[in-house]
Amino acid sequence: MKPAVTIYYCVGCNWLLRAGWMAQELLQTLGSDLSGVTIAPADVPGTYRIVVDGDTIWDRKRDGGFPEAKEIKKRLRDVIAPERDLGHLDR
């Protein structure tokens, strides 16, 4: 079964567009390796967290701000398909 990604975002902070953009980036690059990407409002204010099958790969508070798409794509690839080459992102 292919892994699922969930992006939790703070509604009060208006981070829905940021979460949507990241979902699009992940699907465009790694979509064939994923069962899907879900965007969900978080219960805790200030939350921006990206989770793969229950494991957090990015947390805004823990990791210090918002990730670049390149970093999240690498972290996600390392979890779901470590042998996969991301082309220019790996250079």
TrEMBL record:
Organism: Shimia haliotis
Protein name: Selenoprotein W-related protein
InterPro entries documented for this protein: Selenoprotein_Rdx-typ, Thioredoxin-like_sf
SUPFAM superfamilies: Thioredoxin-like
Transmembrane segments: none
Alphabetized UniProt keyword annotations: Redox-active center
